[in-house]
């Protein structure tokens, strides 16, 4: 067992090392080697700490308990299961679906690099979400987009096992639109159908069939879900659709094309690219903006030489790659002094993990077709793209000015006071007595390390100056999210097989 995962280190040594590092009393350590296999295992394990619902007997994050067992009762629908998105106890459908898509894409592209046990664990993590997403779209022309009142929830510091705030169900019925959430859910189910195709063809068929129906709902009733007055106050400002629903329609169609090889979806992304803004905001990728990921995904067919009509998507993907190369005249992305990709707005590692993932995927596509990207004075080879991705991965794991890992439980120095209710409050296994909404405040305000280690959680991370505050109050830096971890699964899997 590595010291970083031992109880002694968690309770005694690691907090001391962390404190010394933050005080500047330890030298910054530049590691030349990382245990990518260990990091991958922990990155996947994190999702067990985010589970909602009735936990199985093989639950490995043992300090967690059952929660949200009545979800959906008020709409007479079983909506148990799924994931809490971050450090709160709300199930937001939009980022959960994106998380699922990215977990599935990680398996599709890099599952072959994973040790068999971790591939199984990754599929379990996907299925925990897809089982829930299937429930959210079980009724025709209706989608349940969220469970839990976020205002009430965020006013409490309460374990998910204790939560007694309203489990409000936010629903969109046709003809009201929910193109963004519905199309992302279709993408998640379609991508997951590919991930499960070889191991469970029946489940894969169910996922793909449902994805087709849900995409039709998304495309027929076009519009952003957060524009609906009856749910807006519940989904905003947390997961509003800030960038429009059009990218999700193209993204959903692209995944259905890949999963089904259907010509109708090929025609959709060919004919709707301009009208749905495929050329807009091509340098973004995350739960709200799918453009860069869309362009990389669609480029696979172009690079394979099978569909030249999608060339504009490849041109946009190439352009995005060039923005990431500092030596290129097209360089656009900002880096911190320590070498981390940086975008304003907080929770910066969500950008670093998604972009690292796209770099590795595109590098593989380019290599298989023996191509490079022309970035003016620089020719971006697959090796160059991988080197940029590796810099991001290694930074997160500890090669940074702070000399700390931003993955909880990995290495000797990692965040001890993450913004996460279940991690920061006593476990129900150790403290079975009910802890009410306001009673958790003493734990939130405490300077003590969290009693429960949320192994594998990647926090929001440092700011533009590489500074990081190990303080659960500083949620933009200290809060983990499922959509930070999901693409990191794929990136780590690549480096398990290609560490140098």
TrEMBL record:
Cross-referenced InterPro entries: 6-hairpin_glycosidase_sf, 6hp_glycosidase-like_sf, Glyco_hydro_9, Glyco_hydro_9_Asp/Glu_AS, Glyco_hydro_9_His_AS
Catalytic reaction annotation: Endohydrolysis of (1->4)-beta-D-glucosidic linkages in cellulose, lichenin and cereal beta-D-glucans
GO BP annotations, alphabetical order: cellulose catabolic process
Ranges where the Glycoside hydrolase family domain occurs: 36-492
Name of the protein in its database record: Endoglucanase
Family in the record: Belongs to the glycosyl hydrolase 9 (cellulase E) family.
The protein's Enzyme Commission number: 3.2.1.4
Any GO MF annotation of the entry: cellulase activity
Keywords recorded for this protein, A-Z: Carbohydrate metabolism, Cellulose degradation, Glycosidase, Hydrolase, Polysaccharide degradation
């Amino acid at each position: 067992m590595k010291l970083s995962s031992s109880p002694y280190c968690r309770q005694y040594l690691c907090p001391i090392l962390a404190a010394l590092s933050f005080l500047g009393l330890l030298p910054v350590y530049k590691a030349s080697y990382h245990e990518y296999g260990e990091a991958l295992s922990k990155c996947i394990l994190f999702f067990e700490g985010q589970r909602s619902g009735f936990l199985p007997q093989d639950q490995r994050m043992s300090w967690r308990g059952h929660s949200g067992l009545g979800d959906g009762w008020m709409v007479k629908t079983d909506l148990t299961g799924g994931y809490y998105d971050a450090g709160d106890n709300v199930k937001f459908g939009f980022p959960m679906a994106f998380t699922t898509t990215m977990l599935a894409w990680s398996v599709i592209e890099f599952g072959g690099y994973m040790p068999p046990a971790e591939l199984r664990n990754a599929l379990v993590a996907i299925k925990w979400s897809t089982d829930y997403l299937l429930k959210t779209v079980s009724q025709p022309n209706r989608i349940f987009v969220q469970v839990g009142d976020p205002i009430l929830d965020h006013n409490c510091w309460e374990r998910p096992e204790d939560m007694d705030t309203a489990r409000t169900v936010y629903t969109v019925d046709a003809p009201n639109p929910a193109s963004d959430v519905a199309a992302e859910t279709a993408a998640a189910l379609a991508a997951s159908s590919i991930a499960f195709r070889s191991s469970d063809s029946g489940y894969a068929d169910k996922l793909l069939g449902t994805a087709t129906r849900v995409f039709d709902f998304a495309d027929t009733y076009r519009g952003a879900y957060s524009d609906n007055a009856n749910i807006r106050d519940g989904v905003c400002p947390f997961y509003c659709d800030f960038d429009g629903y059009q990218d999700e329609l193209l993204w959903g169609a692209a995944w259905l094309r890949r999963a089904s090889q259907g010509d109708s979806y090929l025609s959709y992304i060919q004919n709707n690219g301009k009208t749905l803004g495929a050329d807009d905001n091509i340098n973004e990728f995350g739960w709200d903006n799918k453009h860069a990921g869309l362009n990389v995904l669609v480029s696979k067919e172009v690079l394979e030489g099978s569909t030249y009509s999608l060339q504009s998507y490849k041109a946009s993907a190439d352009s995005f790659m060039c923005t990431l190369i500092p030596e290129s005249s097209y360089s656009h992305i900002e880096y911190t002094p320590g070498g981390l990709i940086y975008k304003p707005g907080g929770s910066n590692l969500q950008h670093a993990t998604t972009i690292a993932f796209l770099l590795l995927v595109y590098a593989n596509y380019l290599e298989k077709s023996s191509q490079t990207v022309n970035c003016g004075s620089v020719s971006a080879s697959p090796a160059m793209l991988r080197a940029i991705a590796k810099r991001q991965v290694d930074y997160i794991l500890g090669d940074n000015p702070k000399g700390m890992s931003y993955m909880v439980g990995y290495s000797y120095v990692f965040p001890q006071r993450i913004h996460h209710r279940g991690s920061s409050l006593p476990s129900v296994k150790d403290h079975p007595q009910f802890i009410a909404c306001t009673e958790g405040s003493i734990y939130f305000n405490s300077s003590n390390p969290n009693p429960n280690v949320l192994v594998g959680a990647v926090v929001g991370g440092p700011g533009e100056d590489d500074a990081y505050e190990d303080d659960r109050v500083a949620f933009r830096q200290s809060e983990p999210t499922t959509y930070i971890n999901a693409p990191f699964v794929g990136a780590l899997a690549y480096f398990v097989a290609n560490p140098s």
